[in-house]
Amino acid sequence: MFKLKPALPGVLASLVLTLFPHLAAAEAAPPAVPAATATAEERPNEPMPVIELKEDPPPLATIDLTLPPDDLWVRIRRGFGMANLDSPLVQQQQAWYLARPDYLRRVVERSRRYMHHIVEELERRGMPTELALLPIVESAYNPMAYSRAHASGMWQFIPSTGKSYQLDQNWWMDQRRDIIASTSAALEYLQSIYEMHGDWHLALASYNWGENAVARAINKNRAKGLPTDYLSLTMPNETRWYVPKLQALKNIVAQPDLFHVRLDPIPNRPYFQTVEVSARLAEMTIEEFLALNPAYNRPVIPDSKGGSSIVLPAEKVDVFLSNLEAHNKPLTSWQAYTIRKGESLESVAKAHGLTAARLKQVNGIGAKMRVGPGHTLLVPAKGDKGSDNLLSVNLPVAKPAVPKAPAKSGKKKSAKAKNPAAKNVATQRPPARN
């Protein structure tokens, strides 16, 4: 092998000598100055150009989410808070609603009086606004709805559950039909069963089937090592379809354009106000009065110890108060009379200037109804015997319309599925408390 070590210092020396002139030149040269800086230094007194804007630039488009929307549907969508239910049952229910646009239109129109109040109450309690759609499933938003299970009102309370939530049911009124009282009771009940289960789907199943029934179904699945969510429980067909119906309505409301559905706007403001006076001088039709005050069974509002109230359209309140102030006559020509021991319908009718047939007609007493001591009747007040206007404005009492048994097709056991426009037919629900 060749030995290259003696030649290596000479090679390095040649390389240094070759690069040295260039390194020396670099050290001697002054640093480079940008052209713009040099120009500015040469002309230090020349003013900088100024650009003037004739108008302020347009502001960037923004959305203020703190402002309330004009349309109540927008407010409802913003408050959705339940987990979505993914099931073929939901798609089937969507198809059912979408095939009946007239039904949806009627229900939305009926809900306009009540939905703002319900949304306000839901938000006040911190509850998801999907629940404002639940009365569509329960009663098609009909406050006079009555089922063959004796459930009544927009929220379909059976008598026992209504009493548990202090909804009065007597000769004068049935607060299960009262818009304000029944809404408060329904949301209180829903809140309690949600806290029991910690799941809104199970809470809704409890509302329909009963919380104890749902608890038993959960315990059965848990004992078998099975899941305990809503879709995994064994339950009646009505309850099986209950939550999918609400989910289908939620999907349609969330994206109506996607489903080619027109939802007429609902003003995001109160439709009605409560007036603490037991009289009607608001220049409104009896139909409108009944729609907002469906709890009353009689045309006379009782004067309770805590004071009685009526619900009026917001734009009618001033008219009512003005007419009430100018009214210098008795507010009613009727009075309640309780039959005493030894009295009969014939004797009470004669004492008040009526025939027995007329007294029965005014009080809705049928041929098979037994009336005796302790029964309260509506009779003309003193000085107004035989009043002709008693029958003409007597408030109707909703009677149950019992639907035929449906075919075994998995449909909900209610006449609403066959005839959504049925006036007094609502969802049949077994007792809510077992």
Layout of SSEs?
Layout (H helix, E strand, L loop, with lengths): L7 H21 L6 H8 L29 H7 L9 H11 L2 H11 L3 H11 L8 H6 L19 H6 L14 H19 L2 H10 L1 H13 L13 H18 L17 E4 L10 H7 L17 E4 L3 H10 L7 E5 L6 H7 L4 H7 L13 E5 L8 H4 L22 H4 L16
Antiparallel strand pairs: 1-2, 3-4
Helix pairs in contact: 4-12, 6-9, 9-10, 10-11, 10-12, 15-16
Could you describe the 3D structure shown?
- The protein is mainly alpha-helical and 434 residues long.
- Among the domains are: 72-268, Lysozyme, CATH 1.10.530; 334-386, Membrane-bound Lytic Murein Transglycosylase D, Chain A (Roll), CATH 3.10.350.
- It has helices spanning 8-28, 35-42, 72-78, 88-98, 101-111, 115-125, 134-139, 159-164, 179-197, 200-209, 211-223, 237-254, 286-292, 317-326, 345-351, 356-362, 389-392, 415-418, and strands at 272-275, 310-313, 334-338, 376-380.
- The protein has a two-stranded antiparallel ribbon with strand order 1-2. Strands 3-4 form a two-stranded antiparallel sheet.
- 29% of the residues are buried.
- Mean pLDDT is 75; it is low at 1-8, 11-30, 32-38, 278-283 and 384-434.
Principal-axes shape call: extended
Which sheet architecture does the biggest sheet show?
A: 2 strands, antiparallel
| CATH level 1 name of the domain at 72-268 | Mainly Alpha
CATH topology (fold) name of the domain at 72-268: Lysozyme
Radius of gyration (Å): 38 Å
Overall strand count: 4
Classify the secondary structure makeup into a structural class: mainly alpha
